[in-house]
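Handout for the seminar on molecular recognition.
Each group receives one record of this type.
Step one: identify the two inputs.
Step two: read the structure output and locate the region that could contact pyridoxal-5'-phosphate.
Step three: write two sentences on what you found, then compare them with the reference statements printed after the record.
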Amino acid sequence: MNDPEAYRCVEPSSAPTRRNGEPKLDEGGVTQPPRLMIPGPIDLEPEVLEALAGQVIPHYGDAWVTAYRHVRQNLLTIGESEGDAFVLAGSGIVGIDAAIGTAVPTGGHLIVVDNGFFSGRMCEVADGYGITTHVLRTERGKPVRPDELAAFMQTHPEAQVVGVTHGETSTGVLNDLEALGNVVAEADRLLIVDAVSTFGAARVAVDAWGIGICCTASQKALESPPGAAPVIVNRTAWDFLDSSGADNHGLYSDLRVWRHYATEMSEFHPQPATMPVNVIAALTVATDRILAEGLDQRYRHHRKTAARVRRRAQAAGYEPLAADEWASPTVTALRPPTGLAANDVVAAVRERANIQLGSGIAELAGQVFRVGHMGLSATDAYLDDLFGVLESLSNTQECAAS
Ligand SMILES: Cc1ncc(COP(=O)(O)O)c(C=O)c1O
């Protein structure tokens, strides 16, 4: 089991001296929430927040059927798929739980590519179902090579399902999903992808890349509030899922149940349970905005932003954990310059700029801090304020050392 302590956020307990009107109090004396540059959830555009605040509609009937169809189509367009999209209520892990629970029976086998804390969670899901995992662990900060995965699959013929995380949020590494999809397809296995931290900011071509099930979450690059876990099932995956033998894994986490409602109840109640209709309304507005921006343009913007973050950080003495070739477009894990502690950087940025960063988790706790750059946090306004503090911290450090 991953250590629950790994989730603990660093609070700026030893807060540096007050600067520039900190702490942030508005006229009523209420503390302003920090701007979020954690790797999700992220700050949201006003239009998305307005959708969230609308009056509740029922999760059935004509209005809902139309609304749900719309968001599902948006998700399929972003995922370049002609398969089936479902939106499970919950956080990203709910979708991953459903994917594994539908594809692998108790007593079955699953290969997990473990690039870090989040990809490792697939093992925890599998443990809960009584599935045996075969873990291909990569060095932290490195992706998995397609040939490594091909060789690993050969040594584990009993595992017909492979779990890969596209962007590992604890290290800022992006796996080459297209190449991995090819080797998994060649080995005739089912590929489950965790695209929680990438979907919407990096290309995920579900059908063309041979992804069987693609899982994501609303609160990161989809620029929506937390609470929805979109899952796309490739049409070609249904034969596998129908004969997987995983028939005793509950109701909500069975994607075949979602398909049943989506087809048999399509005109009235196209899902098995009550839906978080307001979260989905916000997701609809956010995905409309993403599509209006244009996917290629959006992917280019996030790639360029990640490159700028890395260049500017390096110029100020911070070292990205992941190399440029496999850098995530949405999150960068940075080692601070010698003499600066990662957790102190997180605390200082919160104190001086009222920006919240992510701290290092699991084995990287205390070694790195993490910058999320998607949606609003990928804009100059956020990045300039962040780098104002990062640069001043490292300058002060240099002065002290000289
Ligand atoms: C890559 C990845 N997978 C899975 C998760 C789990 O998502 P959630 O917390 O929405 O359940 C996260 C969360 O940050 C993530 O970054």
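Reference statements: The chain is about 40% helix and 15% strand. The chain has two domains: 16-39+295-401, 46-292.
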